[in-house]
Amino acid sequence: MTGNEKVASCPVCEAPVLAGDIYCEACGHPMGAPTCASCGAGAVDAEGYCERCGLRQPTGRDHAETVLDNGAAAVTDRGLRRSRNEDAMALMASGDTIVAVVCDGVGSSPRADEASAVAVETAATALARGASQQEAFDLAGRAVAKLATSVYDAPACTYVAAVVEPDRITLGWAGDTRAYSLPDGGLLTEDDAIETGEITAWLGADAEGVTLHVRTFTPHAPGLLLVCSDGLWRYLDGYAFPSAGTPLEMAREMLRHALDSGGQDNVTIALIPLGEARE
Fold this sequence. Notes:
The chain is of the alpha+beta class. 17% of the residues lie in helices and 27% in strands. It contains 4 helices and 15 strands. The strands form 4 sheets. Strands 3-4-15-14-10-11 form a 6-stranded antiparallel sheet. A 5-stranded antiparallel sheet has the order 5-6-8-9-13. It starts with 6 loop residues before the first strand and ends in a 5-residue tail after the last strand.
């Protein structure tokens, strides 16, 4: 270093670095890294964490909302305790059919956010083009399994899909993501889980003998179909579902309830009008 060279400091270790240096010679931090949204240091690593303050940087998945022309709406949120949103949701219309898919990344698996994202995209696209619940589930399962490098590095997620037609609803699920009918709050799915809460079915390269549950029924009164992750349903005991507002407003109110109750997990909520409520 000569006296004429401009000197800056490393945003992580604060050692002096020269203008034009690619890496800090003291700690190896790459210079020119993205800036942290919290502390402002140019120290965000490839995983999205700030190497100075530790904050994981916000992403488009931290909070997202979708609304269809018929009013069907979905909201997903990172919650208050998790560093990232490992839930994923898809909500789309195909003619007069509405398709909703919600997947919850299994927290004990690697890259669970990737598993849920690829599962909802694959399954929703298949269902929207007319595939059966089983076909969509199988395609989603293969897509998630391809993410694994071995059974010891196997991203995984739970799964629930709803196909809402004018005169019938078909649900398919594996794991503990759920569907309810509103306004009565009746549970329409059964968890694949043992008494202590551990799930027994999921999508992933390490999943064995998983059977998709399928239920088809006709709604007999106007109302809403709720599809959600455990970030909501763990706070539903004694909860009075909102009775007024648009599906998006109601979904936001449910999200506030989950966050006000602790927000321990990612939260995903999809609400689809049924019967005359579809008009």
